Each structure stands twice: as structure tokens, then as C-alpha cells.
Amino acid sequence: NAGVTQTPKFRILKIGQSMTLQCTQDMNHNYMYWYRQDPGMGLKLIYYSVGAGITDKGEVPNGYNVSRSTTEDFPLRLELAAPSQTSVYFCASSRGQGVWTEAFFGQGTRLTVV
Amino acid sequence: DAKTTQPNSMESNEEEPVHLPCNHSTISGTDYIHWYRQLPSQGPEYVIHGLTSNVNNRMASLAIAEDRKSSTLILHRATLRDAAVYYCILRDNEGGAGSYQLTFGKGTKLSVIP
Asked: Alpha-carbon distance A21 to A34, whole Å?
């Protein structure tokens, strides 16, 4: 059981370039999330999805886009990379939204924008 | 989600118990107390959660004060693998967009001394 898988693990982008961070989960979870973590800080929610075809903004959505065409996949798109987007990105999933459910996180993608 | 306060760092000797405190004086009656930890270069992982009663699982125990304004995560026998940042998080059961996200603070960095 792979859980939540993120690719790539590392990436360096030049300012203005675009890229897609991939996230897939094999637990048949309806709820998926994208977080970013800046050095020495906690995680901040970028976008979340409650099921295929449904997405919504989190705390820090500017500069990002998401889509959810299948239950398994939840890619995060950066259109015009900026240095402020240098961070570690974590994808997560959960079976439900209830406050008693646990979230499962991927290993993260470390992105540097130069 | 209501705010939590944790010490920035703690140390423990290997094979000794560790008590990680968390203050949440503004907790509401519907807030669940969750703990996650983040090992170096990994995504966060769920540890335990509770509402009012003390809770035990294979990883740890959660002791909740009678007035619920504080809680303590107990690792019964610290190992080197337990060295991580531990996050205490309150999750609101009232629903709405905020119930989807986990609000991570800076957490407590636990160092385990061999």
C-alpha cells in the first residue's frame, strides 16, 4: 500500500517557468489537500478537494491552480513561478472531513525558484 | 481553529518517557485535540487525537486536562526514531471550510539523546 505519492521529490525552477506537482493516493480517499511549508514554519493549506470535480481555496491559494478529475489524483499547477513559491509542498488525503479522521501525507516536493 | 501554545524545543534521554505539553486555553466544546509529528525530511504523520477522555494507542498516550485547556502527549519510551517536530492541533467539529484544514503552528522540536 503506497499511500500518498508525490513527484518529483526535488525541482529547481527559473522565475516565470511553470510546472505541475503530481500527487496520487491509492486509499480511495475522497478528501485531498495541498500544503506548503516554509523553512522553520508550520504548514499552510493551499487548496483542497472533497471529491472528483470539486476543489476549493485554502489559506494561501494565490499563484496556484488545481484540478481533480479522478479520485486518485490531485495535481498542483504553478503557472508563473516566483521566488516566494520556494517551499516544500505536501499533498495529503483523508477518508472524510470529520475532525476525528486522520490525514495521510506524502513525502513532499522541495521546490526552489531562482 | 483555536490557537495552541507549545514549547519550541524539548530534550529527552533515550528509553525514558517524554511529556510534550500543549496549552489551548480558548478551546471550544466542539474542538478535538489532534497530534501530528514530522520526522526530518518527511511529511507529517498522525499520532493521536481525543476530545475529553485520555486516549491510548500504539504510538502514544494523550492526557487531557479536566477543563480541556491543556493536554499532554506522552511517549512512554523515547527512541531515536521519535526525534521529530510534534504539532498540537485543534480541529473544530462545527464544520465549514475551516474544518477541512489542519492548522499547523511551529510545534515542539523533540531531540532524543542516546
From this structure: 10
The minimum CA-CA distance between A44 and chain B, rounded to whole Å, is 7
Interface residue A32 vs chain B (CB under 8 A)? no
Q: How far is CA A11 from CA A18, A24, A45, A61, A86, in A?
A: 11, 18, 20, 20, 10
State whether residue B103 sits within 8 Å of chain A by CB: yes
Give the cell for residue B89: 492541533
Between the alpha carbon of residue A3 and those of residues A93, B23, B66, the distances in Å are: 9, 32, 36
SS3 A59: coil
- All cell numbers assigned to B69: 485547556
Cβ contact, residue pair A105, B107, below 8 Å: no
pLDDT in tens, B15-66: 999 999 999 999 988 888 999 999 999 999 999 999 998 999 999 999 999 9
Q: How far is CA B96 from CA A44, A97, A100, B49, B100, in A?
A: 17, 10, 15, 20, 8
State whether residue A50 sits within 8 Å of chain B by CB. yes
